[in-house]
Amino acid sequence: MTTVTTRTIAYAADGLTMIGHLALPAGVDRRPAVLVGPEGMGLSDVERRRAEALAELGYVALAFDLHGGRYLGDPEEMLARCTPLLADPDRMRGIGHAALDVLRAEPRTDPDRIAAVGYGTGGAIALELGRDGVDLRAIATVNGLITGRPGETARIHCPVWAGVGSEDPIMPPAQRDAFTAEMQAAGVDWRLVVYGGALHAFHHPPVDHIVLPGVGYHPQHAQRAWRDVVDLLAECLPITE
Hints:
Blueprint: E1 5-13, E2 16-24, E3 31-37, H1 45-56, E4 60-63, H2 75-86, H3 89-105, E5 109-119, H4 121-131, E6 139-142, E7 160-165, H5 173-185, E8 190-195, H6 219-236
Parallel strand pairs: 3-4, 3-5, 5-6, 6-7, 7-8
Antiparallel strand pairs: 1-2, 2-4
């Protein structure tokens, strides 16, 4: 295990002061980097730990913020903010680009070797960065199988990996089919993994507040999804080239 250094970074996005969590691997050399996007509730210790786990593997990792340093544990408050956000690709791209600028500005980051990994709303933002033509090495989205504006998915020029629970009512089969049809029509190198019996946010450990119906943790599939993400990064964004 490498020694990981972390720090918080304040930056502007979506009219708010965002508070991101940067994790750096040992050493002083430039490394490939990963942007990590959180579920709709916002940045929590779950995403911070994932950024640190990626740094232990040798990546520079930035877990970005959605709500100006706030974690929205009230489902109604979360939906009130995220529903219009998910319907506005330009706003999502603005949040993603602001975080990406922070990651690229880090001296340890190799700006030509960046991937985006996101969960829920954070996954939707990762996809919108790809649809905006951002040069990414890979995109991974868990529970965020949104479709985009017509024709823009053809601007994704990296592999896309997606994971979803088979029993996720927020990302039902019709949504999965629309997403994969869009990827296929655009000629994207895509993969979809459906985790049997899993609900929405199956990767996220239990929280101490009320959650939406159809949300639930699945420990076994959470570990499998993490391994799948790490394997994607190893394939598309190896530490040494």
